[in-house]
Amino acid sequence: MSSGHRTMTLFVTVILGMILVILGLSAEWPVWAWPTLAALLLVVGVVTHRILAPAPEAFPRALLTDPDLPEPVRQEQRVAHVALPSSVADYDFSFSATVRWLVLDAPEDAPYVNPAGLAIDAVLRRARVVTAQQPPHRSAFAQHQLDGALATMQVDPTGRIMAMAQEVTLSLPESDRERLAKLAGVRKDEDVWEHERNYERSKRAYLGEDVLKDTGSAVVWWLSRNEAEVEGAVDRIGLLAQLSAAANNDEVPPPFEHLVPLPRAVYAGDAAQEPGRNDWQQPFVPGRPPSQNGARPDSAVDSFLAWFGFSPDDPDLDLFGERLINLARAHDKASVAEDILRRFGGDRPDPRENDNGEAADPPQPDTPSP
Hints:
The protein has 370 residues and is an alpha+beta fold. Among the domains are: 3-55; 75-105 and 113-174, Tetrahydropterin Synthase, Chain A, CATH 3.30.479; 196-259, no CATH class. 47% of the residues lie in helices and 10% in strands. The protein has a four-stranded antiparallel beta sheet with strand order 1-2-4-3. Helix 6 (215-225) crosses helix 8 (237-247).
C-alpha cells in the first residue's frame, strides 16, 4: 500500500466520522448508538480502502533492475536546415530533426554543461558520418539511413548526456538537383557517344586490317556475304583489288591490274577522256600523249595553249594563234596549220594572201646581222 492510498482512506474515514458525530450530538442519540457508529466507520474505512486500491502491476517494480529510481525526464529540441556534406564537394544536404537527450549523473565537482548543445552536436556528428558517404542525388536513401543511425540513445563524447534524433528529414536544394540532372544527361550522352566512337573505330579496324587487308581477303569477305554469287565475285575482283589498294594507300598488285576498270573521272596521266569534256578544259601534262579515244584533232593544240598558260578568254590568244599558223607554214606543216586554223574558227584570212586576195611572199626567216 502506498502512502497516498493510506492518506486518502484515513481522510475519508475521519470526515465521515465527524459528520456522524455531529448528527448524533444534534439528534441526541442514545448511548447504545455510539458503538454502532464506531462499527459503521470501520466498515466504511474497509470499503474505501478497497475502492481506492490501485490495480496490480503487470511486472512488479520490486523485480525491476532499479525499482526505486524515478522515471527519467527526457528533453528535446528541433533543429532545421543544417548543411551536411555529401560525397561530392559543394553539394550539401539540408538536415532537419528533433533531437532528444537524457542527462546522465555526473560527479559533484563536474562543470556545468549545456545539455541541448551537447546533444545537438552529438547527433550532427553521427549524421555527418553517414551523409559524407552518400552521393547528393540519393538524399531519400540517405534519409532512411539516418533514421536508423540516429534512432538509438547513445552517450556523447563527454559522457554527460545520451542523445538521439527523431522526425529526420534530409533534402537537396532544387538548384543542385537541376544541376545534377543536367550533368547526368550530359554524362549519359557522352557515354553513348563514346560507345558509338568505339564501335566505329572497331568497324574501321575490322575493314582495314581484316577485310581489306589484301585483294584475297576482300574477295573472300564479299563471297562470304554472297555465297550464291560466285560469278559476281569473279566480276568484282578488279573492283575489290582497287578498293583494298586504296584502303592500304598502295597500288593495285600487278596480277590484278588488268582487272581494274578504267576510272570515269579524267586526271593527269589518264588515257581516257571524260564524256562532254574537251582537252581545253583538262590540265596540260608535259609528256602525255594526245588522246586517242575519239578526241578532236585540235585537242593537241588546246593542250599546247594550256602549256603556254593561255586561257580561253586571254586577249592575246588570237595573236598567238596567228603566229603559230605562220610558224607551221614556214616549216611546211600545212596540216598543222589547218588544225590550228580550225581551232580558232576557220574564218581567218590566209596570212599568205594580201588584202587583194593575191598570194603574198612567204615570210623570210630572220638572218643575224653581220
